[in-house]
Each structure stands twice: as C-alpha cells, then as structure tokens.
C-alpha cells in the first residue's frame, strides 16, 4: 500500500473501474466491456488494474473472462464506503489519506474553503491526532480516524448537542455491529469495561447567532492493539475486547448510518430522543464524581444533563452545578 496515498473523491465522479468491480464482486468483467464502456484502451484498463493492485486489491485476471476482485484491502477507501454504505447526506465528498497530521485540521481547512455538508475526512494513520484540550491522540494503523463536516441550522449554544448525538451513534453502532456493551462517559468518551475505546472532538466556527460549520472528529480504537505505557491501563481496542479482528468498514458504515439518521431526526424533531438515549448509555449519571476544570475541582453526584448537554452535578452542599467543560471521573470510594 502506498504510504502517501491521498484521494479527493466525489460520489458523482468515483473511480469508475473500482466501483464496477466492487458492484460485481465475485464476478468477472471482461476487459473488452470495460474498455468499451469507459472509452479507454485495453492498455489503459490494464494500467488501472495494476494501480488497484498496488493499493492492495487482489484481482484475478483471465484473458478469456476479464477481471474480478478476489479480496479488498483493509482500507477505508471512498469507493469501498460508497459501495457498502447507504447514505444520503454524509460522504458525498471524501478526502482519504494514508497518513495525515489530523483529520480535524484538514476538515477545518476545507470547511473554511466551502466544503459541502457531509464531507468526510478519513485517514489510516494520524501523526498529530488531537483530543480535547489539545491532548495527543495516538492514531496508528488499524483504527478509524474520521472527521465529519456539518453545517447545521443551530445556535452556537446548541452545538454541544452534536457531540452527544455522535456519542450515541458510535456507542449504538458498536453495540449492534460488534455486539459489545459500549457506554458513554460525559462529555465525549466511549468506554468498554471502563476503558476508553473512542474519543470525540467537536470544533466549530460560528457567528453570534449562527453556526458556520461544525467539524466532528471521531477516533475509534478498532484493530490497533498496542498502547503506550501511559495509556495501556485506560485505553482498549475493539479487537482486544472481541478477541478477533473486526471489520472496520462495516463498523464505519454503522456509525455513519446512525449519525445520519440522528442528524436528520434532530433537524425535524429536535434532540429530545437523542438526549434520552444518551442518558440510558451514560455511566456517570447517578454516580459520585470528581470534577476538574479550569475553574477548580469539586465532588458531587452527577444527576442529569440539561437540554444543552451540560452535566448537572449535585454538590455536597446541595447546590446544583452546571458543568460545561472539564474532566469527570468516578469516585473510587462510593458509599
């Protein structure tokens, strides 16, 4: 696989040969038909086939029968997504990178340049992946590193609801597709058995009364299973929990499908159902927690989230604190 592969692809203008082979997976397509349909020479067809092989595709060839995809590489290429996911908003444009500094950085840049809603930025690896508060996010091969550009009709103060929406989509996709009990920790972590399997980073450009764009970054530890010394006790991968390699493409399609469904629902019906689903998946609510923020630290009991996604914590003096940002951890000495 080319370590420097970069693709900017539009669903209306895909790699036609790859799409044809994927749509006819397991069946031969004659080189003559490809040449005639696409208006290119047989030599040009052969060159494109070799390019796909360089990307990692195993393609059988026969002088009599033509070409047939035998096996796809474990890559989240645009045509793989389009041939496997049934989406209407997300993924009309896809920026694919074998290696990038940060998908969120790239997404913000192209959003500023006018990239349409639903544009995806996907990387096989990041070397400067970021979490909240500029924390480094390790992003080796095998994970799912993705950013989504949205242009919602929302007030800026409502934007945190999109993080909640994304957390629900990811947790439910893991539960349904991988059959693992994934939970949510406020504000943006997906946990399995108390260890972090996914982080979500939402960044926004807005005016006083309107959102220009929102970039939602999602990092899922899928098949990557080695963590640094500082992370090995707090992070986990789906492969590690499941005991086998998972199908990243199927999981990605499940995440995008749920995210699109909830986004459409939010636009027509609001966020009430999404907030209720989030509460049912949250590990914080009803628990004693420690809160650390730029304004200081305190202890209390997480009792709810409000309509804007803020965590409501009942302090020891009985007052209710509204937490908009910070780190939340469960107290070890609950009694």
UniProtKB/TrEMBL annotation:
Its EC number is 6.3.4.15. Keywords: ATP-binding, Biotin, DNA-binding, Ligase, Nucleotide-binding, Repressor, Transcription, Transcription regulation. Residues 31-50 bind DNA. It catalyses: biotin + L-lysyl-[protein] + ATP = N(6)-biotinyl-L-lysyl-[protein] + AMP + diphosphate + H(+). Residues 93-267 form the BPL/LPL catalytic domain. GO terms for molecular function: ATP binding; biotin--[biotin carboxyl-carrier protein] ligase activity; DNA binding; transferase activity. Biotin binds at residues 102-104, 126, 130-132, 196. One of its GO terms (cellular component) is cytoplasm. CDD domains: BPL. The keyword Nucleotide-binding applies. InterPro entries: aa-tRNA-synth_II/BPL/LPL, Bifunct_BirA, Biotin_CoA_COase_ligase, BPL_C, BPL_LPL_catalytic, HTH_11, Transcriptional_repressor_C, WH-like_DNA-bd_sf. GO terms for biological process: protein lipoylation; regulation of DNA-templated transcription. PANTHER family: BIOTIN PROTEIN LIGASE, BIOTIN--PROTEIN LIGASE. Belongs to the biotin--protein ligase family. Acts both as a biotin--[acetyl-CoA-carboxylase] ligase and a repressor. This is Bifunctional ligase/repressor BirA. It comes from Tepidanaerobacter syntrophicus. The gene is birA.
